[in-house]
Amino acid sequence: MGGLIFLKYKWLFVSMKNMGEKAVEGLAKASILNRAIAKTIDFIIVGALLETIPKVGYFAGLTYLLIADGLFDGRSIGKRLIGLKVVNPEAMSTCSFKESIIRNFPFAVGYILMEIPLIGFIFPIIILILEGLLTIGSSTGMRVGDELAKTQVIEEKTAKEESRTEKIVEGG
User: Fold this and answer.
1) What would the pLDDT profile of 54-99 be if each residue is shown by its tens digit?
2) Separation of alpha carbons 3 and 124, rounded Å
3) 47 in a structural domain
4) DSSP letters along 42-100, please?
5) 76: containing domain
6) 137 within a domain of the structure (yes/no)
7) Is residue 19 part of a domain?
8) Tally of domains within the chain
């Protein structure tokens, strides 16, 4: 039984891993640890909104969760503090609000399902584990949300170095 489950998830890794790799060749993926720390900071912000603003906090947290990566030139507060950036490698642009909503939709689903009494807490945990495993298993560091939005998380230093290189090549 355990082997069958492993094979099922191995297939999931392989199929998800190969979906968007052509689009992101040449961009170095961000550190898994840095991404985890940045996302933890963002989840703390969502939790603070949920707990400190009665009635409105739930929707404020959901809104932040969805649009966070469209803020600050492709950086949520957590990503900004850690030095990460979300980019669209195909368009050579930073993450827009639309792309942020698409890429964070899986987390929003977990957040919404968390409201189910008694068992709701399980759904965000499952989504976090699956997204984390897919990120680790992907050579480009792309999770389901990144595949859907065609985005990738990169280190801010990498983005600045590439921008500087492009200016030098262009003669600017």
Assistant:
1) 789 999 999 999 999 999 999 999 999 999 999 999 888 999 999 9
2) 25
3) yes
4) HHHHHHHHHHHSTTTHHHHHHHHHHHGGGSTTT--HHHHHHTEEEEETTTTEEPPHHHH
5) 28-170
6) yes
7) no
8) 1
